[in-house]
Amino acid sequence: MESITPARVRFAPSPTGRMHLGSARTALYNYLLAQRTGGQFILRLEDTDVNRFVEGSEEELMHGLRWLGLQWDEGLDVGGPYGPYRQSERKEIYLEYARKLVDSGHAYACFCSKERLDGVRQEQMKRKESLHYDGTCRNLSKETAGRRITDGEPYVIRFKTPRDGSISSHDALRGEIIVENKNIDDYVLVKSDGWALYHLAAMVDDHLMKITHVIRGSEWLSTFPLHVHIVRAFGWEEPEWVHLSVFLKPSGKGKMSKRDAADALDSGYSIFITDLEKLGYIPEGVLNWILLMGWGIAEGEFMTLPEMVQKFDIDRVNPSPAAIDFAKLDYFSGAHIRNLTNEDVSSRVKPYFEKAGYQVDDRKMIQIIPILRERLVTLDDALFFAGFFFKDDIEPALADLIGKNLTAAESAKIVQRSGEILASLDEITPELAEPPMRLMVDELGLKAGQVFGILRVAVTGQAISPPLFESMEIIGKTKVLERLKKAIEILASGTE
Ligand code: GLU
C-alpha cells in the first residue's frame, strides 16, 4: 500500500503516563511514513480526560520524541494550519460535530442516570449478556429530547449504531474486518460535562487535520467498527487504518504489566523512553530496536533513521505481537555507538562523566574514545571503563594488586621490574612498550595475563579497562611511573 501521495499522519498520545516503547514505535512508524512519502507528521495531544491527566507527561512525550529524532512538522509547540493541536482547546468544534450527528439522526441525547445504567449492567451480568446500553433514550422524539435539555436535565450524546446488518472496513495489516452491528454498543460520544470522548474527537480531528493514515495501537481494534461508522455517518472518506501489534513481556507470555516494567528496571533496562536515555542507550540504537519489533524484515538489520525512511514499507509491518528482547537493545545500542565518529561519541559520553563529578578534558576524551568504543553498550559504560583517566589519584586495593598464583612480594618485584623497563623508554606507546614487557614476562616464566593484570590494577585502579598499553600512553609516562611506585608501596604493606 505504498502511498504515492504525501501521507499526513499523526501521533496522538494522551498525557496520562510515561512514554513507553509501544508509543515510541507508533510514533516512529508514523514518522517514517510521512518522511517516506514527503508528507507531514503531526503531534496532537488528546487531553480531554482531566481525570487521567498526569503532570509532566506532555513534556516527557515531547522530550522523548525529540530525543529519538522524531521531530514533528505540525502540532504541539510548533503549530500549523490545522490547530489547535491540543484537544482540550477544541471543545466547541466537537460539540458542533456532535450536533451534526444528532441532526442527521446518527446520534441522540441520552438522559439515563448512572444509577439506572448500573442497574441495567447488573441485570445483563446476571443474564450473562455482553454489557451494552439498553436503548431507552434511543427513540425519544426530537421534541421530547429538546424539552428535557431545555429543562436542564443532564445528558450525554450517544452514537446510534444501526441495529441490523454488519460493517466492514479494511485494516492495512489485517485485511477486511467485518463486525455485526448488533455487537456494537451505542457508545457515548459526548459526556454530560460537554467533553467529547476519543471516539468522536479523534475522528473529527483526523478529518479536519486531513489525516490520510491512522496508525495506532491495536487496543483500538475493538472500537474500530464504531469509528468507521462515525466517519461514514459524516460522509467523510475513510483514512487508511493501521492497527499495530502489542508488545509482549520478554518471556513472550502475555502483555507487559507494571510489574514487568519494574522487573526490567531492576535488571538495568526499561520500557520507558526517558529511562533508556538516562541508562545511556543511544537513540539510534533504541530506534533500530523498536523498528524491528513488528517489522517483517531481517531481524538483526542495522539501520540509521535515514535508511529506515528509505526502506520503510507499511505493508511489511507485522500484525503479530512482538516479545520485548532487551539483549537486542544492547546489541543495537553498541552497534550504533560503533557507527558514530569519535567526536560524536566523545560529546555524547561527556555529560555522563560530568554528572558523575568528573572534570572532563576534551582532548583526552577524544584520545580515549578509539580504545573504548568497541566495549560500549551504553554511553555510561564509558564511565565504568574510563573514569580513571580523569582521576588524579587512584587507590588500588592490596588484594587486587596481587597477581594470580603470586605472593605480594613477587607481585611487587614484577611491578618494580616493569617500572624499570618503562622508565627506560622515551615514551610509553604500545609499539615501544609491549615488546620489552612481553620479553620480561617470558624471562620470568609467567603468563602475560598474570603480569598485565597486576599492572592494569596498578595503573588504572581496576581489573577491567581499555587495552593496557594504550591506556598507559594516554595516562602518560610520568603518571604511570608514579602509580607503579605507589603500587609497590601498597604491596610492601602486604608483605610486612
Ligand atoms: N490518545 C490515544 C492514546 O493515547 C491515541 C490513539 C490514536 O492514535 O488514535 O492511546
Plain-language structure description:
Among the domains are: 90-244, HUPs (Rossmann fold); 342-390, Helicase, Ruva Protein, domain 3, CATH 1.10.8; 398-493, Arc Repressor Mutant, subunit A (Orthogonal Bundle), CATH 1.10.10.350. The chain is 47% helix and 9% strand. The chain contains 21 helices and twelve strands. The protein has helices spanning 21-37, 57-68, 91-103, 114-126, 142-150, 198-208, 224-233, 258-266, 273-278, 283-292, 305-311, 326-338, 342-355, 362-372, 381-386, 398-401, 408-423, 430-443, 448-460, 468-475, 477-493; strands at 8-11, 40-43, 74-75, 107-110, 156-159, 166-171, 175-180, 188-190, 213-217, 240-244, 247-248, 322-323. It has a three-stranded parallel sheet. It has a three-stranded antiparallel sheet with strand order 4-5-8. The longest helix has 17 residues, at 21-37. The model has no long low-confidence stretch (mean pLDDT 94). The chain binds glutamic acid. Glutamic acid is lined by residues 12-14, 46, 202, 216, 220.
Low-pLDDT residue intervals, each spanning 5 or more residues: none
CATH level 1 name of the domain at 90-244: Alpha Beta
Query: Which class best fits the helix and strand makeup?
Result: mainly alpha
Task: Quickly give the CATH architecture of the domain at 90-244.
Answer: 3-Layer(aba) Sandwich
Determine the N-to-C terminus distance. Answer: 79 Å
Shape verdict = elongated
CATH topology of the domain at 90-244: Rossmann fold
CATH homologous superfamily grouping of the domain at 90-244: HUPs
Q: Tell me about the biggest sheet? A: 3 strands, parallel
Task: Count the beta strands.
Answer: 12
Q: What is the helix fraction of residues, given as a range?
A: 40-55%
What's the tally of helices? 21
Rounded average pLDDT: 94
Radius of gyration, whole Å:
32 Å
The spatial strand order of the largest sheet comes to 1-2-3
Strand content: 5-15%
